[in-house]
Amino acid sequence: MIKIAPSLLAADFCCLGNEVESLNTTGAYMLHLDIMDGIFVPNISFGYDVVKQLRPRSQLIFDVHLMITDPMKYIDKFIEAGADSITFHYEAVENAEEVLDYIRSKGVAAAMSIKPKTSVEEIAHLLPKMDMFLIMSVEPGFGGQKYMPQATEKIAKAKQYITENGLKTLIQVDGGVNASNIARVYGAGADIAVAGTAVFGKADRALAVKELVETAE
Ligand code: DX5
Ligand code: ZN
Questions:
Q1: How many Å apart are CA 100 and CA 103, to the nearest integer?
Q2: For residues 54-72, b (16+ Cβ closer than 10 Å) or e, as one string?
Q3: CB 28 within 8 A of CB 6
Q4: Where are the beta strands (DSSP E) in 60-108?
Q5: In testing the pocket of ligand 1, which one of 4, 7, 148 has its CB within 8 Å of the most ligand atoms?
Q6: Which pTM was predicted?
Q7: Domain parsing of the chain, residue ranges
Q8: 197 Cβ closer than 6 Å to some ligand 1 atom
């Protein structure tokens, strides 16, 4: 069964606490928190104080997706704020292995993401160091974009590498995932689908999550 990670970026920012609470009984697997610095991506979202204040409102795993230039500088802050899992971008760092090791040393899940132009081959050797591998299926920066079909092949490639090498790394896919493509995403080997618009765009979040899971099957 595919796991759904609603992305808060598509929520109503006036009522973030209530929006997070609206997921508590939906069967969503984790909450995806998009952190943007206006430099690594051309958009600014929210920071660790927001994550900290939302933490008591939810029992979901908090996965922080760092779309920032210097993740090492802020990892501790997000862990203190309540992150259970930290995802950074391969393109943002000099030494990805060092960052992965650092995150794991802090006792939280370590995840790395690649933008659409970065190949799976380039990072495959790092997969054993990752608890989760995040494949971007849009250029990071904004919610509500269209799923790039090239992502499907990348999911399949990563899945093959993970299976052949007996790894436990989970594959997560982020960007434009909805009921029209989630079956392809799941079929190619994704374990977790991030869904912003496809969950927060619907009044009934439980139904939205259920429909995504059922359509994937
Ligand atoms: C894009 C973000 C995504 C985005 C997904 O930069 O990383 O998490 O919020 O939103 P949808 O599902 O609407 O594409
Ligand atoms: Zn994201």
A1: 5
A2: beebbebbbbbbbbbeebb
A3: yes
A4: 61-67, 85-89
A5: 7
A6: 0.98
A7: 3-216
A8: yes
Encoded tokens for 77: 């802050």
The reply to whether ligand 1 has any atom less than 6 angstroms from the CB of 6 is no
Mutation test of ligand 1: which of 13, 145, 146, 199 has the most ligand atoms closer than 8 Å to its C-beta?
145
pLDDT of residue 136: 99
- Chain position carrying tokens 């990805």: 96
From the list 81, 86, 87, the residue with the least C-alpha distance to 50 is: 81
CB of residue 131 inside a 6 A radius of ligand 1? no
Series of mean pLDDT values for 10-residue runs along the chain (217 residues): 98 98 97 98 98 98 98 98 98 98 98 98 98 98 98 98 98 98 98 98 98 97
What is the Cα–Cα distance from 90 to 97, expressed in whole angstroms? 9
Ligand 1, atom nearest to 178 Cα: 12
175 lines ligand 1 (CB under 6 A): yes
How big is the chain, counted in residues? 217
pLDDT (0 to 100) of residue 23:
98
Whether 140 lines ligand 1, by a CB cut-off of 6 Å, is: yes
Closest-approaching ligand to the CA atom of 194: 1
CATH of domain 3-216: 3.20.20.70
| Calculated CA dihedral for residues 208, 116, 89, 63, nearest 10 degrees | 10
Which pair of tokens denotes residue 42?
A: 């051309």
